[in-house]
Structures are given as structure tokens and as C-alpha cells.
């Protein structure tokens, strides 16, 4: 035997948790504390079975909280007060005695809490919580009706199973409706509140300046930067181009927008990609180095291969890019060398000395680049994100003393030396590598893959990609992927394919796609030859019809009843109506009915009908007509039969 | 339409009897008539003073059949019922003196007071319809019907009929108190023994025999047959019942249902007929589980019947 009451209590807590957990990260400290305290005190009191706080006390206690948050409410801050009040109300209800009314309030508050969490985040986890919540609310509602009848009701296990099964039928039957409504209902692609008011921007990874030496160590975050659907590439080719830095003050590299024109000649294999960046405030559009074209509206294209969004992203973006590169991009005309040789007025002496050493090594660009490469390779530099050189002399320290740093140190010092040695060059910021997700067929690139490398202009070859970080002595450990992926990574990737599918097909599903589907259907219908279509679909149609017919026949054998059964049913219905005798469940025989009804029509009907039935023969036509006549008389309420 | 030119007289007799003489005893009268038509015996279980004997007397009176009565006591001997040979001194040989059982209708009053040996002799006679005394077999008259009574509440000094012997009774029923208004009329009118004594027979023995053959001819359809069979099977599978209905009981159900249909003026059996006699035919034959022996058997039968779908189409 199971007590309904304990079931509803458990369900109420789980439903409350389903509302709390998704909203919890977005709450401020006070509502969080209240929520946890309310939950714990509720659990404790339910265990004890006594509730010292009366519900009116709780209701009174909410009023000042409500007033406080009502005063906080403003156009600039509309959301936090509302969700705080919601969370506190949920906490208060969870801490009190769970009467039927309070349970219903908890269900509603949980729904609101879950719904308001979608203002901040549109993750597929929302669907899981929503599904859970709906199923359990349906269950709990059914159970509450029992509890409402009898507070201490207990049911046996088989009965409980039946109750649960029929309660689950409701949400399960609603699932097909979901499939129907999904394509037509309006939707948002971004968490409404959170996206318009982004949290403090990301600190690591990709930024719009390169400034080695600003921090002694950097924290690497594995937050997702973007996904790229494309065939698998060699690791050495996985340079994702973001932006280009062309100005330096000796330490900091920045980008200025007046960029001399270039005429690149794309050679090599074209790689098509569909990029799905995570929503962020950054306007630069990432693509595999080097993007030849990028299919998106309102995009500014710079001559140095940088694509930027004009204005702000209003929805989750996705775009197709086509890239061509084997590491260098030839130029039709020579470039503005001066622009890419800009240097600060003063360089540290040791750097100038090294630069003049490079200049002495050879006259053309490629020799000088090769000399510097060799210098880096043999210099014993280590790649590290800890114990970094800092301050205004950071690059000097890196080059000659510490000899360890991350990509920014390598790239900016390399570029600085190249420029000092008279080789035009620039820094390219973007990402390197990424996890290929076999299941989804896309690359998953996280913020810790952010990278900076150098593009040097070598007369005759064009812009050549040089990654100074790869000259580090420990480059192999850092850049080469481990031989086999860990289980955790594999699970992460599998979960991510679900996330990606969700973003692609649910979040990014928009009005345009709705229109596309409608158009597609329309064009199918227009372009089709009706006769041909009919002919080709006829077998399917017939098959479906047959199946439906069979199902129908199996379900409703009563529709194909004999004449006798039909007229008997009419008779029974009429007796039930006219004489107020229940015929269905009482198990009354025909003659018993006749004597209860005490009506000559009924008696005659029974005599004729039973006479045929219990003689094992069918009604003759005259009998049938007579029975119908009797039914008509019965219906009209005539007492005499002519 | 399908009613044959059935009797009738026979039906009318019982209508008259219950209307004019034995108000409020329609059910026991109907069952007695059914027993007479099927050729079975009836056991009436009820308290004294509710008219058991009167019903038996009236039955005899209205049919003009001979009536014998045995008041059972613990010292009643089998020969007191069957009769015995007495030496005739004038003629010099034994001559057989028939006992009260040599009548068409025999009232065995308080049958459970007789000792088992006597009960056994009576029941044997009921089954065989003949009595063998000193090597000579004497057939009992036809029609022959035993109308036995027993008092269920007074158990001291009685010998309960064993199940196998209860099975020999076609029907077992109670009488019950008459309705309130009816009882007042009966009190006002006084007993009716005298009026019954002066009752003129309304049917002849030949008519009864004709009616019996008509009952045999009542049509029993497959549907109703399955219905009866379902009831029998259900009693065998029921939780409270140790031994369900026997095949003999099933045959009796069909026979009595035919008689009931005949009395209702039909030449076919309807499920209603089966329902109307099922308790009287079945209840006393059920052997309940030992821990359930006090259960209301009639109630069990009614529950079983309520659970079986009537063949309505």
C-alpha cells in the first residue's frame, strides 16, 4: 500500500526543484539563500510531520519582500526583481505545509521559474526540465484529486500503477501535438533578456588587442566559441582566421581599419564550411584561414581577409564560408610594404641588435624569415601560460631571459623582429585546432583554442603563414592531440552533438525556415503533375487507407453489427430514456426489462425479438419492420398500437 | 406470434391459486409447479408457521392428486414411510400395506428430524420412484413429487442432510414473511386450511402429464445453453466455492428453465428463465470452502450471475 499523500509530497519537491535549478544560476545571493533555506526547512518539517508556521504567517512575511522588490523594479532592471520574487514565493510555499492548494501554487510557481530561466539561456537542458515538469505536474494533478477526496488515502501497488499509467497518457498523447505546433509557432532564437544585456565579456581567448605581458598567467576557459560543419582537415591546416592586427607600439598590437587594398590570388583546394558561432558581442566572423568568401548579409569585408558584422547580431548566426589556403596567399600586385613595416619610434637595444643580425643574414625576405625561424627554433623557447614576463619590457624579457610564454609572446615578438628586419608582416588572431565531432560532422572550437600567429609578406610567394609558437621546444606536447580521446571528452562531444542539433534545428529554426518549408511544399504542389502524383502516391494512399480501415474495423467492430444488434441497441437506449431503467450494467434480461417497464410496446418488442433470438434464427423482414414500427411508437409515446 | 397453443389451464391454475388462496406465496408456488412439471422434488427451508404445509396441501388440492404426509421424528422407521407387509390371518398370507409415500404428492415435514437411515430410505425412493419390500418391487404412482420441509434454525436433535442427498432435490427455496399489508389481510381472514380442504381440483392428472411433455418440447437455444454452461463453469472457478455445480445440476438448470419458460407462456427458454430459477436450483448444491461455510450461497450465485453477460444479441 502506498500513501497518496507521500507521493504528492515527493512529486511537489521534485517539481519545485525542476523550477529552481534552471533559474538558480541567474539569481542574486539573497533569493538563492532563501530558496535553499525554504527547501531544507520544508523537507525537515515534512519529515517531522508538523508545520509550526501557519500559512497566513508566511503570506504576511512575503509582503515586505514583495514591496522591496517592487521598489527595485525599473525599466533598467525589470527582470531581477520579478524572478527574485518568484523564487522567494516558491521557497516560502516549499517550506510550508503542502495542502492541495499550496501544491498547485508550487506547480505554477515552478513553471514560472522555469519559464523565466529561458530569458537568460536557451539551452536544450530547458527541454529536459520542461518535459520532466510537465509529466510530473500531470501525474501530481491526478494524485492530488485523490488526496483532495481523502487526505490519508492509500492505494495498492496495482491500482497505483493504473493511476500512474492513465495520468501519463495525458502528456504522452500531447507529444504528437508538439510536432505539429513546432513548425508554426512563433519563437525567439536568443534568450531575450540575457542576450541584450550580456554578462561581463569573456576574459580569455579571442580579444581585439594583443598585449603580451599584461598578466603573469592566463586562465583557459573551455567555453564554446563556435562550431564549424565541414569535412575533417589536417591539423596543420586548422587555423581559424578571425582578425588581423597591423599596428604595434612595441608591446600592444591593435588593428586600424584603413587597410591598403590587396589582390589575393586564391589557389589550392576549396574548403566549404558552415560556421555556427556562439552568441557574443564580438563582431568578427571566424572562418578557416583563409576565407575567400563568406555568405552572410550585412558583412564588411576587409582587404586583409577579415570579415566583420555590421551592427549587432540579432539572432543566433550561421554562415557559409569558402576558404582556400595551403599556407600562403599570392598577390597579384605588390602590397603597401610601408604599412606593414610600421614600428614604434624606439625599440629596445637588444631587439634592434637582433634585427640587424637578421638583416645581415640575407637580402631577400625569405632568407631573413628563415634566419629568424632558425633563431626561434634553436633558442630553447618554451610554450607556457604560467610564469609569464610582464610589464613594458615583457617582450624583451621573453626573448632573452624567460624564454617562455604563450602564443602572443611568440607571435608578437616574431612579428616585431620581422618588421625591424624590414620584412612586412602582421599578426592574425583566431583559433587553432578544434575537436572534430564524428557524430555531428563538425569541429568544436573552444575559447582555449584562441591563437595568434604571423603572416609575413615574402616577395614572390605573397602572404605566408608562420606560426612562431610551433617553434617552441615543447610545441609537440602542446599542439599535437593525444593519441586517443579520453572517455570524458568523447561523452562531452556526444552531448555537444545534441546541443548542436538543438541549436540548429530548434533554436535557429525561424520564420525564414517556416516560409521556406511552405514554399517548398507549394512548389512541390505546383510543379507536380497531378495525375502522375496521384499514380505514384496511390499505392501508399491505398495502403494507409486499408491500414486505417483495418484498425478502425478492429477497434469498432460494433459499427459492423447485424440488423438485430442495431435494433436492439436502439431499443435499449430508448427503454433507458423513456422508462429510466438502466440496461447496461444491471444485467437485466429482456423479459425483466419488459416487466420493469410495464409497457405493452416494450413487451411486444421483447416477445418478437426474443422469440427470434432464442429460437436461434434471425428476424424475418415482417418482424423487423414491426419492431421498427414499435420503436417509432415508443418514441412518439403513443400508448396504443394501431 | 410464436406462442404455441400452450395451456393454459395449467398456468391458470397457479395464477388462481396464488391469487385466491395463497397470496404472497407466488414464488414458492411457481417453483412447486416447476418441480411438478419437471418431475423433481422440492425442499422448503423456512421457519415454522410460514405456510409450508399449506402450500403442499394446496398443491395437492388444486391438482386433485393424492396427498400423503409424513411428520419426521427421530424414531421414525423406514417402514413407517414405505409401508409394510402384514400377515392376513383370514387369507393366510402377507399382504402389503402401502405407506404414505405411495401418494402423488408427499409432504415430508421436518425431514432433518428423521434419522439418517430413514432419510436414506426416503431419498432412495425419491430417486428410484419405486419401493422394494421383501423382494417385491412396488412402483410409486406417477406423477410423484416430494415436498420436503426443514427448519434451518432449530438444529438440536436433527440430522443434517448430506450434500449428496441434497442434490436429489431439484429445487430448494424459502418462503419468507408475507408483505406487511398482505400479512394484515391474512391475519384478518384467519387460516385457510378449511378452504383448501374444500378446494375443487382444477387440472387432471392427464393434463399434468401432457404439460410435462410440452415442457420437454420447449426450445433451448445455443445461446441460452452457453449461458447456463457459463454459470456452471463460473461456480467451479469461484474463490469461495469448494465444489461447483455438477453435470446433474446443469441438466436440472436447463429442465427447470424450460418449465419456467413454459409457465411464462413461451415455447423457448430466455436467459431470464434461467436467472429466475438459478438460485433455487443451484444454491443448495454448492459446497463452500470450510471457512466460508456460513456464506450466503444464494448471494454467491447471484453475484456469479451478475458477472456473466446475458446473451442479448
Q: What's the Cα radius of gyration of chain A?
A: 38 Å
Q: Helix segment count of chain B?
A: 13
- Please tally the β strands of chain A and state the result: 22
In helices, the fraction of residues of chain A equals: 40-55%
Classify the secondary structure makeup of chain A into a structural class: alpha+beta
What is the CATH superfamily label of the largest domain in chain B?
P-loop containing nucleotide triphosphate hydrolases
**What portion of residues of chain A belong to β-strands?**
5-15%
What would the CATH topology of the largest domain in chain B be?
A: Rossmann fold
**Which stretches of chain B are low in confidence, meaning pLDDT under 50 for 5 or more residues running?**
1-6
Spatial gap, N to C terminus of chain A: 63 Å
The average pLDDT value of chain B, as a whole number, equals 84
Number of domains of chain A: 4
Q: Mind summarizing the main beta sheet of chain A?
A: 7 strands, antiparallel
Q: What would you say the CATH architecture of the largest domain in chain B is?
A: 3-Layer(aba) Sandwich
Q: How much helix, percentage-wise, in residues of chain B?
A: 40-55%
Q: If interface size is counted as residues with C-beta under 8 Å from the partner's C-beta, which chains form the largest one?
A: A-B, 20 and 24 residues
Distance between the termini of chain B: 19 Å
CATH class of the largest domain in chain B: Alpha Beta
Strand adjacency order, main sheet of chain B: 2-5-8-1-9
Strand order of the largest sheet of chain A: 7-15-22-21-18-4-10
Describe this structure in words.
The complex is a heterodimer of chains A (642) and B (313). Chain A is of the alpha+beta class and 642 residues long. Chain A folds into 4 domains: 2-181, no CATH class; 224-490, no CATH class; 512-555, no CATH class; 561-636, no CATH class. Helix content of chain A is 50%, strand content 14%. Chain A has a 7-stranded antiparallel sheet, with helices on one face. Chain A is elongated. The two termini of chain A are 63 Å apart. By secondary structure, chain B is an alpha/beta fold. Chain B has 13 helices and 11 strands. Chain B has helices at residues 8-21, 26-38, 52-63, 78-82, 116-128, 163-166, 180-189, 193-197, 205-216, 222-237, 247-263, 271-282, 297-306, and strands at residues 42-45, 67-71, 83-88, 93-98, 105-109, 130-133, 136-139, 145-150, 171-173, 241-243, 287-288. The A-B interface holds A 561-562, 564-565, 568, 587-592, 607-608, 610-611, 613-616, 623 and B 1-2, 219, 221-224, 264, 266, 268-273, 275, 305-306, 308-313.
